[in-house]
Structure formats: C-alpha cells, structure tokens
# Entry
Amino acid sequence: MKGTVTERTAKNKNIPTGEIEITATEYTILNGAKTPPFTIQDDTDGGDELRMKFRYLDLRRNAVKQNIELRYRVNRAARNYLDGKGFMDIETPFLIKSTPEGARDFVVPSRMNDNQFYALPQSPQTFKQLLMVSGYDRYYQVVKCFRDEDLRADRQRVHADRL
# Structure
C-alpha cells in the first residue's frame, strides 16, 4: 500500500498505530480472501454440518470461545480445589486392551503387530481399580471416554458447539 500518513482525528491509545492512519493512493492485493461460507457471529447462518466442516472459522465465534473458556475455568477450579484437598490428578492411557463392556469398542490397529488392535477406553473403571489397589486412594481423573452406542433417552446428546 502506498499513501499519505495523517494524524487521526479519533485517536485510539489501545493500539500502537492508534494516532495515525494512511489515506491510500495505491494498493496491491497479494492474496485475496474468499467470502466465508457463513457469518462469523454469535447467531450464525451456518448449520451444524457447515460449521463443523469449517470448524476453524466456527471457533472464532464468541459463543464457542465463551464455551471453551468456561470449560477451562470449571476444570481449573475443580483441579485447584482437589489439589488443595491433597488429591493427585493422574492421567491414564488412551490406548488399552479391549474390555468386556456393553458398548462396541473403537479399535485402533497396531502398526507393529499384525492383526492386533488397541481399544479406546470406554470408561475409567479399569484404571480406577488398578490405581486404588496400588494405594492411590486420593486421586482423580478428568477423562475422555469413547463409547460407540446408539442414543438412548436416558443419555445426554452433546452437540459439537457445546464443548
């Protein structure tokens, strides 16, 4: 861009260039941007499928950002409280041997052993039993559980925009 630098009439002290502006006389577009497939605002016109296809744009919306920040603050408050009570936060593996539970396993093939598979844990119960028997009686886990189940009336359905 080429132009004339002038003093702003309405100065903005919050940004480094808040006292000046450039009145453009010439410019070159180096890389044009396409119009986003939906408006990036709290009440967007994009449906769930479109927003998930362009998740990197959806994550810019304030509503999504506020949900992510709330989840962080709730987890942080819980961790701080439990730490103050002498509990340890113990992380457990994401890949385990399949367990005989009610739901179907999500399986991951082993790269090193043909016809061998790992399963994504369906519940932290296996690790809870192992840790309790090992003497870790003051611990907690904030875990992700992977279950391949049909929806039932007594289970909550979580939407992708409600992190």
In short: Residues 56 and 149 are 28 Å apart (CA to CA). The radius of gyration is 25 Å. The helical segments are 48-53, 55-58, 62-84, 125-133. Strands lie at 2-7, 20-26, 88-89, 107-109, 117-119, 139-140.
